[in-house]
Amino acid sequence: GAGVSQSPRYKVAKRGQDVALRCDPISGHVSLFWYQQALGQGPEFLTYFQNEAQLDKSGLPSDRFFAERPEGSVSTLKIQRTQQEDSAVYLCASSLPDREAFFGQGTRLTVV
Amino acid sequence: AQSVAQPEDQVNVAEGNPLTVKCTYSVSGNPYLFWYVQYPNRGLQFLLKYITGDNLVKGSYGFEAEFNKSQTSFHLKKPSALVSDSALYFCAVRGSSGNTGKLIFGQGTTLQVKP
User: Fold this and answer.
1) Residues ≥6 apart with Cβ < 8 Å to A70
2) A103: which of A84, B17, B43, B49 fits an S-S bond (Cβ 3.0–4.6 Å)?
3) A98 at interface of B, judged by CB pairs closer than 8 A
4) In angstroms, how far is CA B105 from the centroid of its own chain?
5) pLDDT tens by residue, A77-97
6) Minimal CA–CA distance to A15: which of A80, A98, A90?
7) Residues of B in contact with A50 (CB under 8 A)
8) Do the beta carbons of residue B50 and residue B59 sit within 8 Å?
């Protein structure tokens, strides 16, 4: 596609609900990243995929967060039992190896 | 540990004047440095990067940045600001070796250009 596409753009979840956020990277981009951006802050790294392999998940804040990219293209970030502190914008980015990352518009998650 | 500092929360400049948005970094090894811009309700857009070579890097929309190794800085500059440049700017760093490519971002600087 022309750019990184994320869906939904906005998600409101009740506390305790599970959510799934989708990312369609740029076609052919091997690397895929997820970031979390709290209000008024810079994005913070969550996890990294190279094709289907999750090579770095050091930024996932708890075991309630899970990401997958089973066929090396589309990725899903899942958050179980959402808490208010999970409210943020979740950004997905993709890139060619050692090249600059291109970001999607993000999914704004609000936990009420 | 890698880190990035953007010491100014906000920069105000008059249209037509030069602008500078400051960034300093800390990283082991040679740094890869990036600037991104974020408009309201939009994702981050890549502006420019420094990997190696000339210390002055030119990027999109007339922006440039100067890499200074001794001062560990990578300030973003533009000779003549436009009102449309008003946005949130992020500096980011990536280590050059043994790295997955993840970026460490600064807190961001809001640029306000007034007519």
Assistant:
1) A52
2) B43
3) yes
4) 10
5) 999 999 999 999 999 999 998
6) A80
7) 100
8) no
CB contact under 8 A, A42 and B107: yes
CA B40 to chain centre: 18
pLDDT tens-digit series, residues A41-57: 999 999 999 999 999 99
How many Å apart are CA A77 and CA A33, to the nearest integer? 10
Closest CA to A61 of A38, A81, A45: A45
Complete DSSP assignment for B67-102: EETTTTEEEEEESS--GGG-EEEEEEEEESSS----
What burial class does residue B103 get, using C-beta atoms within 10 Å of its C-beta: 0-12 exposed, 13-18 middle, 19+ buried? buried
**pLDDT 10s digits, A7-16:** 999 999 999 9
Question: What residues 49-108 of chain B have any CB closer than 8 A to a CB of chain A?
Answer: 49, 90, 92, 100-108
